[in-house]
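cron nightly-structures :: item 1 of 1
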Amino acid sequence: MPSLILVSLVWAFSFGLIKGQLTGIDPVLVTAARLFLAWLVFLPFTRLKHCRITTIVALLIIGAIQYGVMYMTYTASFHYLKGYQVALFTIFTPIYVTVINDCFTRKFHRHFMYASLLAVLGTSIILYRDLHLTEFRTGFILIQAANLSFAFGQVAYKKVMKTVRHKDHHVFSLLYLGAILSTLPFLPAPQTWAVSTLSSQQILSLVYLGILASGICFFLWNHGARRVDTGTLAICNNLKIPLAIGCSALIFGEQINWSQLIFGSILTVHA
């Protein structure tokens, strides 16, 4: 669980950074760049000896969904929402994690669902003042697609890794490779973009997001996800939300309703 909390802190900063630096760049291009850097981080650790072809294919598919589809829809949502709003619309991820896990196990875990619903209630309180704004619809749909993709990947990765003896870092590059492959059909034409058009701040943001937020943190997240029960994993998916709102207010200057944030955060933490 400590790794999940650490990752939540890093990701909390990422929302405002993407909104402030990268919303003018094609979201698929941002996704591909982040995932390529993340893949490079884990490529030297890859050890696929005695790894079955079915496991390799499964991990490629999981990566394509958990990171590829998730990042393309997630990054696109920043064109419609503020950074803290993107974070807030991830409130349903705990529910998706719980439901998908129950589908895999064919068993309803009532106490996991209750804990997830309490976490959603806490973050909904934080979100309440923005619920009536109709311009959120497109952003909301994109974020829910990202939430479903990320939730599926977490649960599926735990299930697949129970059947193999390989350590996480030996196969993790496969997830990023699958994610990169999923972006290829949607990449803009090469003549429409160039690295030279990016500012130094945008390049540094991509490097930070690719190596740390995507590479190291996604590894720590999936590694930690294997070591906690589904209820804890579901709740940890929402820890980044109050943290992201705090970063948006303190670092990126967005206006926040602090009473809603504090009360909602208490419910989330105690879920």
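cron nightly-structures :: done
The first helix runs from residue 2 to 21.
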